[in-house]
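Worked problem 6 (solution included).
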Amino acid sequence: MGYRYLLFHKPYDVLSQFSQPVGEPQRPTLKTFIPVSGVYPVGRLDRDSEGLMLLTDHGWLQHCLSDPRYGHPRTYWVQVEGRPTAEALDQLCQGVVIQGYRTRSCQAMLQPDEPTLPPRVPPIRYRKSIPTTWLTMTLGEGKNRQVRRMTAAVGYPTLRLVRVAIGPLELGSLPPGEWRYLTDPEQQALIQLAKGGPRSQAIGAAKSPTQGHKNLD
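Solution. The predicted structure is:
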């Protein structure tokens, strides 16, 4: 039997693990949605974040993609409070200091239109006097709550966070709470990503931060 690779669209308020934490409130876990034993998540998403998760029983690949040295790209759609200035976007791209750590360079750009996403349950809390803006951010590192801390550091708190891609894998039209096995081409692309080895640098800001970005799905 070969290795198994799964993609899962994690909904809001779901824990990125199969077991319930002891002494904490009962919440849905991966076990609620994925009836496949022996697979484990590659990385995690916070409880209040949504989107693409990769699960596998391939230990080598899990190690490669979880090791910070490898710096594989992860792309997020980020709804923030307010409309970030060009200076704020430049700061995100060049790196900001959060909890004494300076983040690596990344890509951060405005989305010209609101992306097509299923409604979040519960919805975010809107304030009529303050507009919201969607960004696309691609990072080569994944520290705890990093995207939220980065946008807060430049003055634009994150309201909703959805991971839409992990390397060559895309969330696409997979509905919240659903999962599927990777296709053969996706598996091959994922293995090639892992074989790339540790990255000496994170993702650079290859595009102007104020340039619009098309939806990835």
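Discussion: The two ends are 32 Å apart (CA to CA).
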